[in-house]
């Protein structure tokens, strides 16, 4: 009986408090700056990968969604890097399922590439440490390297493949802050993050952003250590706006917000004045992440439910990183 080269992984998406925007090395995805995130316990991708000499070519299927040729090629390219490490040339069958809509700013590439990396490496019997898995995932999508370790995570920018790696700062149960994901639209974004990153250097504000970064990271880590929610979340909101200032002032300009995003941002600032301790952060999509704590959750949810534009809300706690699971998708 030949050995079955098959494995499955469940990997979370993550939300960055300090964002990754711009790359020093586009091929290795070495970022311009370090970033800090937490894994989300309710938003994830499950992926099953099987390698076999029976398969004539690679195949990738995303359950309940269509995939574009570009996405397929990105998956196959990543499989090539993992196959090269294992010195195996067998073709693969990959099936994934997301429990949230892809390409709306909810970081499906983070959970997707993390799940693909861990499942493919296990299927090929590669024995890799968390750090090695994080580096490998980074080659598929930068932010996915932060979905490998548990809880609150720092991705050290580094300078090369070895030094650019994500590690856990605190486990998920260290601090129960909440990320309320608000889905206001299910349209796909027009410009991928990968293309967006390559434009970062065209903004006159990127050097200013990078100059401020070490101090900002130091402060955020201090607030995280002190569990000072207001300071932590307020700095995260400012940081998201800082990244979007670079995006908006790139040439061509990247404007990822929709009128609904802006409505929600304004509401959040208003609710804060009314005494609800809530802050926003946004990635490259129209959906918005609201940072809050348990004591403010009910008030926030009832305010959100009164807004017509809100289609769905998902309340996340800090979650664990990518994990192998026994149940396969095929
Ligand atoms: C705005 O990791 O999606 O979400 O490395 O090209 O795949 P690639 O980019 P990606 O960029 C994420 C950017 C961000 C900020 C963040 O998550 O840190």
SSE topology:
Layout: E1 5-18, E2 23-25, E3 30-31, E4 35-52, E5 59-62, H1 69-86, E6 91-98, H2 108-123, H3 130-140, E7 152-156, E8 165-170, E9 177-183, H4 193-199, H5 206-226, H6 229-248, H7 259-273, E10 279-281, E11 288-293, H8 294-305, E12 312-316, E13 323-325
Parallel strand pairs: 5-6
Antiparallel strand pairs: 1-4, 1-13, 2-3, 4-6, 4-7, 7-8, 9-11, 9-12, 10-11
Helix pairs in contact: 1-2, 2-3, 5-6
The structure holds ligand DP6.
Short synopsis of the structure:
With 330 residues, the protein is α+β, with helices and mostly antiparallel strands.
Describe the overall structure.
Strand 5, helix 1 and strand 6 form a beta-alpha-beta unit. Helix 1 runs parallel beside helix 2, helix 2 packs across helix 3 and helix 5 packs antiparallel against helix 6. The chain has 2 domains: 168 residues, Ribosomal Protein S5, domain 2 (2-Layer Sandwich); 139 residues, GHMP kinase, C-terminal domain (Alpha-Beta Plaits), CATH 3.30.70.890. The model has no long low-confidence stretch (mean pLDDT 95). It contains 8 helices and 13 strands. The protein is globular, with a radius of gyration of 19 Å. The site of ligand DP6 has 16 residues, from helix 4.
Q: Give the percentage of residues in beta strands.
A: 25-35%
What small molecules are bound in this structure? ligand DP6
State the helicity in percent bands: 25-40%
Distance between the termini: 20 Å
Notable characteristics:
about 325 residues; alpha+beta; Ribosomal Protein S5, domain 2; 2 domains; 7-stranded mixed sheet; 4-stranded antiparallel sheet; globular; binds ligand DP6
